[in-house]
Design a protein that fits this description.
The protein is α+β, with helices and mostly antiparallel strands and 162 residues long. The chain has one domain. 26% of the residues lie in helices and 19% in strands. The chain has five helices and nine strands, in the order ββββααββββααβα. The strands form four sheets. It has a three-stranded antiparallel β-sheet. A two-stranded antiparallel ribbon has the order 1-2. The protein has a two-stranded antiparallel sheet with strand order 3-9. Helix 1 (51-61) packs across helix 2 (65-72). The protein is globular and about 50 Å long. Mean pLDDT is 87; it is low at 1-13.
Length: 162
């Protein structure tokens, strides 16, 4: 009998692994960014920026790292850095124009932004993925991202609380 997320080992040769657990998204997930800006706005939160990410962003903006950190980030209680937000909750690098949104640092945006929506919190279950889709119109649309690319995004996120 097959259980959800498990490949059967029926007929497996002796000495072979019994079963290989697959994540619930083992067949992949569809996602296409619609540039709605929902992931970059809303309630206050954190957009984590690591020391390794600050140099490319600073260079892109024509600033020194110190200037970038001073003007565009805040230190959190944990000592980590987060990008600043506008009063309305938008990321300060989100630009709204003609009904569309753009990231003004898109080529050098932080890993947290690059890996949306493939975060642990969105991938806990099919239900959390569907709930994410209530706010993100790109969920279940567009190209199929295979499990390997999703797992790579999760690894890239590392220990970020996403």
């Amino acid at each position: 009998m097959l259980r959800e997320g498990v490949v059967s080992d029926a007929g497996a040769a002796p000495g072979r692994p019994a079963a290989t657990a697959l994540p619930w998204y083992g067949d992949g997930l569809r996602f296409q960014c619609t540039q709605c800006g929902n992931c970059c706005s809303g309630a206050p939160g954190y957009v984590w920026v690591t020391p390794a990410e600050t140099q490319p962003i600073a260079e892109f903006l024509g600033l020194t790292v110190a200037e970038f950190l001073d003007r565009h980030t805040r230190r959190t209680g944990s000592g980590r850095r987060s990008l600043l937000e506008k009063r309305d909750g938008d990321c300060e690098f989100l630009v709204r124009s003609g009904g569309r949104t753009l990231c003004s640092i898109h080529p050098v945006r932080p890993v947290q932004c690059r890996t949306w929506p493939f975060w642990k919190s969105n991938l806990r279950s099919p239900e959390t993925w569907a709930a994410t889709g209530q706010h993100c119109p790109g969920i279940d649309k567009g190209p199929l991202h295979n499990a390997e690319s999703i797992e790579a995004a999760l690894r890239e996120n590392g220990s970020r609380p996403l």
